[in-house]
Amino acid sequence: MVDKEPDFQPSEERNEWDMERIHELAGRLLPIYADVAAGRIDDPKIQRYLNELIGILHDLHPADMATVLESLPQQERVMVWKLSEPDEDGEVLLEVSDAVRETLIESMGQQELLAAIEDLDADELAELAPDLPKEVVHEALESLDAEERAQVVSALSYEEDEVGALMDFELVSIRADVTCEVVLRYLRRFESLPDHTDKIFVVDDDDVLQGVLPIRSLLVSDPEELVENVMSTDVVRFRPEDDVEEAAAAFERYDLVTAPVVDNNKKLIGRITVDEMLDVIREESEADMLNMAGLKEEEDLFAPIIDSFKNRWMWLVINLCTAFVASRVIGMFEGSIEKIVALAALMPIVAGIGGNSGNQTITMIVRSLAMGQLNLSQSGRLLRKELGVALLNGVIWGSVMGVVSYLLYGNIGIGLVMVAAMTLNLVLAATMGVLIPVVMEKFGRDPALGSSVLITAVTDSGGFMIFLGLATIFLL
Question: Domain named CBS: which ranges (predicted)?
């Protein structure tokens, strides 16, 4: 059977990480992988394909491996996962999306999971723990020393949107009363510094944070100078209860690489690093995109049909209801449409431009709220500004469409109704584009949640009502 399968040759020129080649090899091997793994197929050609795939996978960085896994259907994903480098499984699990991580963990046995996480730091283990089986977490904690176990338990005690959940416990601290030369000798004792170490934290005998010593300042300072004379006391610091999105905004605003985390007594308990904050920013951006489209959560691209259905159905039902309302609005004016057929051709224009303008406004407001650039006290001023923009756009583009409508149908009344309807619908779109996210933010909901669906519903129904209502009043 194997000999009858069409042959294909490995790429003569490829870089170490060729997505198309991985997909090709995985698709080729999947139907026969069980037989190959069991030794029931011993074909040199098939073995060559398998060796090539393994070679590519073992050369991948964990982040690249995560990208590969997210791009594969579930059966091929599990096969590729079993062929990957076992020593890096824990790092890959940290990199993949939550939805894909779930499928990978389900495919692993308890011992495989323990082997994957045994080399992870305390903060990394704490990040994975909520997705792991309880018995695996318990056994992993038992294998740690008392200090590491306390760190994991501490990180797990915080909510996922709090800084404490993302704390890194691996840091370097010194006292203020030593010289720079002593600090340099101390650093040389490390085999390697913790990742993203751009500063050393200065603490007193009780580990209370006194300041930070930037590495660049240490390198250019007089070796005999005391740390207290070189360190910076103006430090951006966080508490473990702080919101991670606010922390990420601070990292972006102040160009931070690392920042200390202190308790209520200003005692240094950990740090947060730029790589975690970049993940927060990316995840928040992705969540806003999904929420605006009415998706409840991040979805595995190759998730089972029923899982995707569960993720999408709610806002589709809401959209169906709003579309029904819009159809009933049109039904109210069937008589007007029968008498002036041009209305049927023109009314989608009014609704469409309103929806587009509303989405522009709501996207800008959601982004401003996410970036901390807008607070609720400014919403009135912003609403007045957006109404001004809507009026200007309505007058200009409404007039353009009014002239076009007159030229098409030879009826100045239709042209004037188009001007008025487009202007009023743009005003409605601007109003709702500001109010929808602001009201949701006020009530503690994600301002992006379903915002695109809601604004489209309002501008469609409102646009039809305004246009057909004006036409009925002034043209009949």
Answer: 167-228, 231-289
